[in-house]
Amino acid sequence: MPPHPETWMKVTPLGLYCEPGGFHVDPTRAVDRAVISHGHADHARPGHAAVLATPETLAIMRARFGEDRAGDTQQPLRYGESVTINGVRLTLHPAGHVLGSAQVALEWQGSRIVVSGDYKRRRDPTCAGFVPVECDVFVTEATFALPVFRHPPDSHEIRRLLDSVALFPERAHVVGAYALGKTQRIIALLREAGWDRPIHLHGAVEKLCTLYESLGVPLGALLPVPKGLKRGHPPILAGEIVIAPPSAEATPWARRLADPVTCAASGWMTVRQRAKLRAVELPLIISDHADWDELLQTIDDVRAPEVWVTHGRDDALVHALSLKGIRGRALHLVGREDEEDEGAPEALGEETTP
């Protein structure tokens, strides 16, 4: 009889640890051997001795941390390829979250665990789509695990943005979006919707856009927001779309722009009070995480009799699992819910649980 996953996948202060394999998955601090699901800061940390991840995630880590901090040794593993580590078969599958994001499938003595990392089920022109993998235990996030979170189609939200640009041609539209994943996705969605004019970028999001293009994701014409304007210079970029970190809209940086319309692209914009508190004039419900229905659909798809919940609204999801006859377990991992979608993370690119 295969061993129960709890006997070989341990919850530690550093995160999930595969005991027979001798490695952590998305550890919260530097370790000897780490498998990284994707490049966001609450999953990818600097200073590991050895790192295994997709080639794209390794490139993102090098861009963010520097060559000398992205792992002393770096082992790329493409989607669908497998490697065996101390008897544990490890395979990476697309998670659909951001470029290079992966689910980590681990098999040992006939037992299979899939650690999803963060994921979404919507089509994203900038990354590979989520692939369900049947398993004995599925480790899921629960960022938007409440029935109130049912995200509208991305095309609907992009159309709202373009309609506002057409309605207010004398104003700049500043979209607050995370540097990694969300910025590039919004750009790609705008291109698909027919916006072929240059999109202007805050300096904090330029570097990763350049990286995405170097990794084969076309983004079209991108321009930096002009710098060095003298005092008294007329407001700039009327009728244009600007993408910036979420907090930039409230800084002196935004004063050079023509009567900016403050936009924010996040699943949290479902909560009207949250948009109001942030003085968001045009909330755009565009998320890089699965909503409530997509979480439940994913759990049906992977057919796991047991689901572990790593962070987010675990109580609601665990209850919903019990109604399906599935054992739910809230892991309460440290380091998965310390950063909000405001403040520090905005330059790093995550949309995390508040």
Automatic annotation (TrEMBL):
Keyword vocabulary terms for this entry: Exonuclease, Hydrolase, Ligase, Nuclease
InterPro entries: MBL, RibonucZ/Hydroxyglut_hydro, Xnuc_lig_assoc
Region: Disordered, residue numbers: 334-354
Documented EC number(s): 3.1.-.-
Domain of life of the source: Bacteria
Molecular function GO labels: exonuclease activity; ligase activity
PANTHER family, per the entry: BLL1145 PROTEIN (PTHR11203:SF49), CLEAVAGE AND POLYADENYLATION SPECIFICITY FACTOR FAMILY MEMBER (PTHR11203)
Protein's recorded name: Ligase-associated DNA damage response exonuclease
